Amino acid sequence: PPPTTFKLHCSHRPTYTPSHIPNPNYIRIFDTTLRDGEQSPGATMTTKQKLDIARHLAKLGVDIIEAGFPASSEADLEAVKLIAQEVGNVVTDDGHVPVICGLARCNKSDIDKAWEAVKYAKFPRIHTFIATSEIHMKYKLKMSKEEVIEKARSMVAYARSLGCDDVEFSPEDAGRSEREFLYEILGEVIKAGATTLNIPDTVGYNWPREFGQLIADIKANTPGIENVIISTHCQNDLGLSTANTLEGAYNGARQLEVTVNGIGERAGNASLEEVVMTIKCKGDLLGGLYTGINTRHIVMASKMVEEYSGLQVQPHKAIVGANAFAHESGIHQDGMLKNKSTYEIMSPEDIGLYRSNESGLTLGKLSGRHALKAKLFELGYDIDGRELNDLFWRFKSVAEVKKVITDDDLRALVSDEVFQP
Ligand code: KIV
């Protein structure tokens, strides 16, 4: 039977029981950096690195950490177990203990291994999945619809029978699955005891309106859905994962699956920082949605994942890219010097970025005199009039050949040591 209580997993956050959700606008952030993220080619991490990341995710305020896929290897099982034992039992500064989740295919051996690993957490979760699209059922599973429903139903019931009262179910490739079939299988797993229904756009094939409608249709047509949490899991094959995730939330999803820096299979997943910061900036337009994420830990999370996974963040990546708060053109720099809100929609400190240069100005060939003067002032030089004019033309000639002018270049220009007109 469906559970009647859901464990309280954070003191300052809304808690819920499946039958009574007191804070309907609260969005649970489910981070799968350590599972789907690690599935990125070449992103394998050591157990110690995974534990470090899990600790930081807890500090960040992530509600659910998908720590791995325990059946995939002994090492993964051990890593998930360690995370469950440590991170799954420590109360963080903001007073919450994250749910620790392990992935399992719909078979007893995977589910046993997932339970073996997560059961040490205060709030353990098993996440089980089976594909539901025609393409996957025909070519990959070679199973009929009836067989898939029976497998899903019996394996969710099996996970519950082990003593796990928090079971998530995903119909893999839901984005390309037939609607009526989805309503049926989801209704059956709810009866079998699933507490979260995750709707994956596994191949990133949906576009925002389509994915939002999918969530709305599932919400309207699945029997028993009012007793569970609807979740999204959007891949980024068309570059739409963040937009699809937000449309999912707008249409009723209250758990969003994301990864730090958007890492994951192929083109990756919806990125935690983009989803969370959009909800923070636009929560009102999204109907008052909010998360429990302490956004000031975002930059640190991004750096840690970049270093440990070896996957470099592109400079123009939204929120955490090196250029996300850099301003080079003269017009933009002039605006920034007058008021930062002219070209910044959030403050870098909100995500834990403390710029060494207060103004965020990056000097290059498009920069103007005002920016040069301001930048020099930051470095301790108060230069004006003809002196500034001379320096500006010398600066311009250097900027023509050098893409970025560093603080050291400027010091050298001022002291005339290196660049002479
Ligand atoms: O992309 C996907 O479908 C998944 C599921 C296991 C949620 O990763």
Automatic annotation (TrEMBL):
Pathway the protein contributes to: Amino-acid biosynthesis; L-leucine biosynthesis; L-leucine from 3-methyl-2-oxobutanoate: step 1/4
- What does the record give as cofactor? a divalent metal cation
Q: What class of enzyme is it?
A: transferase
Query: Coiled-coil stretches, from where to where?
Result: none
Q: Does the keyword Transport apply?
A: no
One GO BP on record is: L-leucine biosynthetic process
Give the UniProt keywords, A-Z.
Amino-acid biosynthesis, Branched-chain amino acid biosynthesis, Leucine biosynthesis, Metal-binding, Transferase
Has UniProt tagged this entry with the keyword Cell cycle? no
This entry's Enzyme Commission designation comes to 2.3.3.13
Question: Which Gene Ontology molecular-function terms are recorded?
Answer: 2-isopropylmalate synthase activity; metal ion binding
User: What Gene Ontology terms describe where this protein resides (cellular component)?
Assistant: chloroplast
Can you give the residue ranges of the Pyruvate carboxyltransferase domain? 27-299
Catalytic activity, per the record?
3-methyl-2-oxobutanoate + acetyl-CoA + H2O = (2S)-2-isopropylmalate + CoA + H(+)
The record describes the protein's role as: Catalyzes the condensation of the acetyl group of acetyl-CoA with 3-methyl-2-oxobutanoate (2-oxoisovalerate) to form 3-carboxy-3-hydroxy-4-methylpentanoate (2-isopropylmalate).
Q: Give the record's family classification.
A: Belongs to the alpha-IPM synthase/homocitrate synthase family. LeuA type 1 subfamily.
Q: What is this protein's name?
A: 2-isopropylmalate synthase
Species whose genome carries this gene:
Tagetes erecta
Q: Which residues of the full protein are shown?
A: 37 to 457 of 593
